[in-house]
Design a protein that fits this description.
Elements: H1 2-6, E1 21-24, E2 27-32, E3 35-40, E4 49-52, E5 60-63, E6 68-69, H2 71-79, E7 83-87, E8 94-96, H3 106-116, H4 118-133, H5 142-164, H6 183-206, H7 222-229, H8 232-249, H9 255-270, H10 272-283
Parallel strand pairs: 1-5, 2-6, 5-7
Antiparallel strand pairs: 2-3, 3-4, 7-8
Helix pairs in contact: 3-4, 4-5, 5-8, 6-7, 6-8, 6-9, 6-10, 8-9
């Protein structure tokens, strides 16, 4: 009652009018004189300095390595509906995040509605396939779609390996021991982890439901895996095979580090998180105003 009477429930800037994401690393996020500030000695995304953070006009702060945050900063972010996520360099890892409290539940409700209908669920899955491969399909079941996906992926692996000049003997993955395979497969495993982190950031940023996937089912991150797969062809595999090629030139390098470094460069250059957010909105046909933008700062 008091919130309504005081107008505090409408005091926040709608997420549709905010500037989306802001990346910070190697510094301290704190409050000074009621303002959110980020102090850094440099060496990361920002030059050394004391920056005032416009927490009322961004949707989520992505806090990278070498950073700390005070209790007061968390309080200020929560009061203004700005989420905070702890991430790896340029989003190659997603560690934890308090939930984003969006202006509306419309996107999550739309996801539930589509997921709960077998007919609409396969329609969304087909749309995912079209985004990935640029081809509309008429598959009537998820199983049929997975079979078509497997054939396309097999050829995609072969073509990408040829492009980067990396020997390829097929996709092999032992869940119990992911490193017990050849270099290209290990690189794909590491790249997939990085891209899944970017997808997790996108899912958290849109406050959609990670468990409700349209193609994936069993994982608690099924929707995250769905979204990560949307860029397997033009992000995950170029990261993996590019890093594998570099590793084969100098096997004293650390393969996982090479993959992470390459992933960070591609994520930053191609605005991968923003692209994934737009994919989520497109797939769920979000029509309600008042949701987050995807511009990055």
């Amino acid at each position: 009652m008091l919130l309504g009477r005081l107008g505090l429930d409408k005091a926040r800037i709608p997420h549709s009018d905010r500037h989306g994401l802001i990346f910070l690393d190697r510094g301290r996020l704190e409050v000074e004189d009621g303002c959110l500030r980020f102090m850094t000695a440099g060496g990361g995304m920002l030059d050394a300095g004391d920056y005032q953070i416009p927490h009322q006009s961004v949707s989520i702060v992505l806090l990278g390595p070498g950073s700390s945050v005070t209790h007061d900063a968390l309080r200020i972010l929560a009061a203004h509906g700005c989420a905070l996520a702890a991430i790896g360099n340029d989003g190659v890892r997603f560690y934890t995040a308090p939930p984003l409290l969006p202006d509306t539940s419309a996107l999550a409700r739309r996801q539930v509605t589509l997921w709960a209908s077998s007919q609409q669920r396969i329609a969304v899955a087909r749309q995912m396939y079209a985004i990935r491969f640029g081809e509309e399909v008429k598959a009537r079941t998820i199983e049929m779609l997975r079979g078509m996906e497997g054939a396309r992926l097999k050829r995609l692996y072969e073509l990408t390996a040829q492009k980067y000049g990396v020997p390829w003997h097929g996709r092999r993955y032992d869940r119990a021991n992911p490193n017990a395979t050849d270099v290209p497969n290990q690189a794909i495993n590491h790249a997939a982890s990085a891209v899944e982190a970017a997808a997790a950031i996108a899912v958290a940023s849109t406050a959609t439901i990670p468990q409700l996937g349209f193609v994936h089912e069993d994982s608690g991150q099924s929707f995250v895996l769905d979204i990560a797969d949307l860029v397997r062809h033009d992000v995950t595999l170029p990261i993996a095979f590019g890093a594998a090629k570099q590793f084969m030139k100098n096997e004293r390098e650390n393969l996982e580090r090479l993959v992470r470094t390459r992933a960070a460069e591609i994520f930053n250059r191609e605005q991968v998180v923003a692209r994934l957010i737009e994919h989520i909105k497109t797939l769920l046909e979000e029509q309600v105003s008042g949701y987050i933008s995807t511009s990055q700062s």
